[in-house]
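Bench log, entry 3. Co-assembly request; chain sequences pasted below exactly as received.
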Amino acid sequence: MKNNYSLFSLLKNAFSYHENWEKAWKDPEPKKEYDAVIVGGGGHGLATSYYLAKKHNMKNIAVVEKGWIGGGNTGRNTTIIRSNYLWDASAGLYDHALKIWEGLSQELNYNVMFSQRGVMNLAHNLQDVRDLKRRTHANRLNGIDAVYLNTEQVKKFCPIINTSPDIRYPVLGGTLQRRAGTARHDAVAWGYARAADEMGVDIIQNCEVKGIKRNGDSVEGIETTKGFIKTKKIGVVTAGHSSVIANMAGLKLPLESKPLQALVSEPVKPIIDTVVMSNAVHAYVSQSDKGELVIGAGTDDYVSYSQKGSHDIIEGTLNAILELYPIFSRMKMLRQWGGIVDICPDASPIISKTSIKGLYFNCGWGTGGFKATPGSGDLFAHTIANDEPHKLNAAFNINRFVSGDLVDEHGAAAVAH
Amino acid sequence: MFIINCPYCGEREQSEFKAGGEAHIVRPKQPTELSDDQWAEYLFMRKNIKGVQFERWVHVHGCRKWFNVVRDTSNDMIKAVYKMGEKPPSI
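Structure output for the full assembly:
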């Protein structure tokens, strides 16, 4: 049993110069066989293992990770959390996640620094105004908090925005979800890892999956760089590399993997206390607790696994940022990076069984998976444990691309792709 | 960001082009006879390869012609460029 993190444990360890903290998770070698193996040690994968152990009593399970946990898109996103999606299915999915976020630090005994500072989405033309008003009404019908703001209210909520009518894309209004906000992305991975490890989940890092062994229509196990691991259930949560794993099993997915970039500025004093997103000019910005501006750019339009992205994409984003926030004109950017996002044709995720028995995929989160981490893990665990989807992820099955029952969320996805 | 050698205009920056996705997906000859599964395969399913991929590009801010590119998606290195209708190189 791990010691709880508390003020007392912090004081106690301060006296020994913080050198005697116990490890948050073990570093085990893989066993020969597990009841289930989760491929991918990001937030979604670790959350899946946590809920499998906690809610479905599956303790003999492992998470295998190619690199180190939280080193992929979990550590590369812009940490925005919101649930103001248009369709009922999406609203159910993302608000389920948001409700778990609201109690997550207490549940995991790990401060994920969830901060409900609000997310504002701006409208820059008449169609934006119509779309965002429609989305506000749809959100309210689904019990999700949303308000529509006019230009003056936008200015009042975030005074540094340039609301002058003579800029290239003037601010005509916006929506605000006050329950939305940000969380510390690394802490989410570490918190879930620590909690899952305590319940007996093996978290195996530096273990790359090289193949999936099939026996006819069901899975038998995975070939990894640490040897063969036998299992009857494989849950794949590998984001941009989902198609790579699917190809190993002889499956094709409706995904394209593209680079998505983000950048942070030098740290400055508090200047923006919320998250502001703009679909139309493609700029979104928030400020981290360290004081850096966190800026999200768009995706490149070509398939790539290079984790780089093109310079002109950043240039376009910064152009828009400068037009909307002239105060940032002399800010220096410190770091830029790319992550590989797996995008579905309808900009909605897949949390689903497949045609191969025992093989499950949780993918297609595209540009906005971080916000769903707890809900995604919970629902994917339910799907794996019961071999049936939960009612909240039933619409996000892989067969929707055959039936045509798509969940088109391009409007709410916030990043154009 | 990389340079693409347009078969009509020569070397230009990638930002002048638009990617058109996986190449050589043939439109079904008898669409009315396709099952839903076959339609899904044609419309949505993609190899999404990490490695050498055959794909279509259009020089949208140039000659506006379509052509094919063979590119390694793991590092964006272009292996070959060939015109529409030409036989794909064996790579």
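The CA atoms of residues 128 and 280 of chain A lie 8 Å apart. The longest strand of chain A covers residues 333-343.
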